[in-house]
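Quarterly update, task 2.4: nickel (II) ion-bound model.
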Amino acid sequence: MTTAAERQALIAHIHDFPSKLESLVGQYSEAQLDTPVRPGEWTIRQIVHHLADAHFNGYIRMKLILTEAKPILKPYDQNAWAQLKDSQLPVQTSFLILRGLHERWAETLASLPEADWERAGVHLENGLVTLDQLLALYVRHGETHLDQIKQLSLS
Ligand code: NI
């Protein structure tokens, strides 16, 4: 069970994520953005676009949970999404999405009544998932990909 203070820290994390991502990615050259972070893994460019893909899905899932009774949370094929043409665009396109999205996401979550955190949706692969669990999951998701990016040496 998440305490109110823990939750506020997680929401602050959601709010601050785009600037953390932008300062980290900004240290790499254009050529490095197209280098797999490790053999067989995504490039930084694909990771940045994946973060936009994943986080707008996350935002929509939370809004469905807040506005419907136990909605279905549809999985999507993230590897197939990362192969589509838009994953080759400049990273700035997804920075813009993430900036707006995370600001709205944090604002949506910041003032929810306690009871709303127990609302849940049904994920077709993982079963019943509460808003509380999704918040922790998406904070972890962002952090995991920041760590993944850092695997590519800057020099
Ligand atoms: Ni991911």
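Highlight for this quarter: The chain has one domain: 4-150.
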